[in-house]
Amino acid sequence: TAKIISDESADDEVGVNNTVELFYEDDETTEKIKLVTTVRGDSLEGLISIESPLGKALLGHKVGDRVLIEVNPSVSYYVQIRSIENSDDSEDEIQPY
Q1: Which residues make beta-bridge pairs with 81?
Q2: Tens digit of pLDDT at every position of the chain (97 positions)
Q3: What is the distance between the terminal CA atoms of the chain, rounded to a whole angstrom?
Q4: How far from the centroid of its chain's Cα atoms is residue 16's Cα?
Q5: Secondary structure of the chain in HEC code, one letter for each residue
Q6: Closest alpha carbon to 57 in 47, 69, 49, 66
Q7: Whose CA is closest to 79, among 67, 70, 71, 63?
Q8: How far is residue 85's CA from residue 11's CA, in Å, rounded to a whole number?
Q9: Which of 52, 88, 45 is nearest to 72 (CA)?
């Protein structure tokens, strides 16, 4: 039941292992996060899983896009993508379970 996850994306689109600077519209703050696979996710370190609501919503978007993050049917918020940096997962730790 394994599923292969591609880490390839266009240089100007959000993909796996990209570091993304986000502007949160509700509280007017910015934050840098890195999108990673589930086994590398650690939200306290800014490593956000591509399976999370935030990760799923950002994939494939570009700098300048305004993206709706739907946490559940009654909670959602908007972010704007300020920058995208390409990186790899060579220094990311795999989470113990």
Answers
A1: 22
A2: 666 555 566 678 999 999 999 999 999 999 999 999 877 777 778 889 999 999 999 999 999 999 999 999 999 999 999 999 987 655 656 555 5
A3: 19
A4: 8
A5: CCCCCCCCCCCCECCCCEEEEEEECCCCEEEEEEEECHHHCEHHHCEEECCCHHHHHHCCCECCCEEEEEEECCEEEEEEEEEEEECCCCCCCCCCC
A6: 69
A7: 67
A8: 9
A9: 52
Please state whether the predicted TM-score (pTM) of the whole model is above 0.85.
no
Question: Is 13 exposed, middle or buried, given 0-12, 13-18 or 19+ CB atoms closer than 10 A?
Answer: middle
What is the distance between the alpha carbons of residues 79 and 97, in angstroms, rounded to a whole number? 31
d(CA 10, CA 24): 24
